[in-house]
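Checklist before submission:
- one chain only
- standard amino acids only
- sequence pasted in full

Submission:
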Amino acid sequence: TVALADFSLAVTNVNTPPTISGNPEITVAEDDSYSFTPTVSDEDVGDTTLFSIVNQPTWASFDTATGALTGVPTNADVGTVSVIVISVTDSGPVTVDLAAYNLEVTNINTAPTISGDPAITVAEGASYSFKPTVIDEDVGDTTLFSIVNQPSWTTFDTATGALTGVPSNADVGTTAAIAISVTDSGNATVALADF
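Returned file contents:
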């Protein structure tokens, strides 16, 4: 019997692309926390991975070591960020992408604010005018004003909240607890302090 001299046979590694998966939420309400981390597997032992993102929302942070996309959007972020793509690259280097997705920030109604310092005296025969200042951070929100204990000699504008008029001698006296309120299209109502 004769034998071939012993020899060694080495199996060399051929880089196998990593896989990336996950189902990110595609909607988040303003002021709510958003968090998504993809799942990555790589059968190449000791392979390193680096994450990247295309169309990252401005309100979110992205971790290139884990692929985590996190953040809390505000009212200013209401709308949709389209075609977000999270990718992972191994030390091959081979890059694979998670399926592109759109992320919508939905609006949560924010109550308006109402302010102003109405004059609390007016002389008979003099013109009286007061209009409150209203701020509503919800874009496109409509407002409707209402009043309680409106003086009989005044006119009240439900679109602007303006209270105007000219009292006569017959109107001399005090009208108490006048309250001007504003309601937005989300049915949130706020009132100016009674005067």
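Reviewer check: The longest strand covers residues 79-90.
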